[in-house]
Design goal:
32% strand; 7-stranded antiparallel beta sheet; mainly beta; 2 domains; globular; 5-stranded antiparallel beta sheet; Jelly Rolls; single chain
Length: 283
């Protein structure tokens, strides 16, 4: 059994992630992803010259924060309460984040927003996960941000996740509205975003120059595999789809490709172990 290396872990002994249900590389459109636009600057555009590899989705904008959002692609906006776990990843490169010319960090987080569960028509309820504080100094090269959640955590707030839409009357920190749970939000969210706007915080007008690429949402279908190398549909047979899935997982640093010790590191040993398992095939 492979030892998990991600923050919130799915057991892969009896479950399999296929290639991402949603994967947008910006080679063929935006897949429903859009970013900040308006009077704050250049806005958001598909940059044919910058990506990981190019093209990528590039925002050059001045505002309190920037947000990349998707509310139209059913591969990214779906009922996640009906699957046995999910994982989200995004490549990010910070060219510049500056406040009145001074480089500054800003939060970088994933947020699922449910506009039907908010306390009123002007406010949404959401669950969110902060990846890190990003800046040109710390993330001036491409970085893969990734989070994974198991179905066993749906009954509570998974580690590292928080809620928004209401305010704790004592601490004044953001929280989910009364009667709304993590499972409620992931079942009915209307929009998925990656943003610098952390709930409960306020920032002044800031100059942003940020590029994202390879945005992926993967769901766990809880299908029993015939073999550790049986990573992708059709299950029960090892074929080209499994090789493609392994290559994608390995090159993107996903735990699914961590086949061999030392666990937590993807290296030649993982490739050799996958090849051996693949050659063994299915009964």
């Amino acid at each position: 059994m492979r030892t998990p290396i991600v923050l919130t872990v799915l057991s892969l002994a009896s479950a399999s992630f296929a290639l991402p249900d949603g994967l947008v590389t910006f080679n063929d459109g935006t897949g429903g992803w859009e970013g900040s636009q308006g009077i704050g600057g250049v806005g958001t555009f598909v940059d044919e010259n910058e990506g990981n590899p190019a093209p990528g989705l590039h925002t050059v904008f001045n505002d309190f924060g920037i947000t990349f959002r998707n509310s139209t692609n059913p591969e990214f906006v779906q009922d996640l309460s009906q699957v046995f776990g999910f994982a989200f990843g995004i490549d990010t490169k910070v060219n510049d984040i500056a406040f009145f010319g001074t480089p500054v960090p800003r939060p970088w987080l994933l947020e699922l927003r449910d506009f039907d569960a908010g306390p009123n028509s002007d406010q949404f309820a959401s669950v969110w996960y902060k990846f890190a504080d990003i800046s040109a100094a710390t993330h001036g090269e491409w970085t893969r941000f990734f989070v994974q959640v198991s179905e066993s955590d749906y009954g509570s707030m998974p580690a590292g996740w928080r809620g928004a839409g209401a305010e704790d009357p004592v601490t004044f920190e953001p929280m989910l509205p009364d009667g709304i749970t993590f499972a409620d939000v992931i079942a009915g969210y209307d929009q998925i975003v990656v943003t610098t706007l952390e709930p409960g915080f306020f920032f002044g007008f800031t100059d942003f120059d940020v590029v994202v690429d390879d945005i992926a949402l993967t769901v766990n279908t809880d299908i029993v595999s015939c073999n550790p190398a049986d990573l992708a549909e059709p299950f029960g047979v090892t074929d080209l789809a499994d090789i493609q899935c392994f290559i994608f997982s390995f090159t993107n640093g996903l735990e699914l490709a961590d086949f061999a010790a030392p666990f937590g590191v993807l290296d030649l040993a993982d490739i050799q172990a996958f090849v051996q398992a693949f050659v063994n095939g299915c009964p």
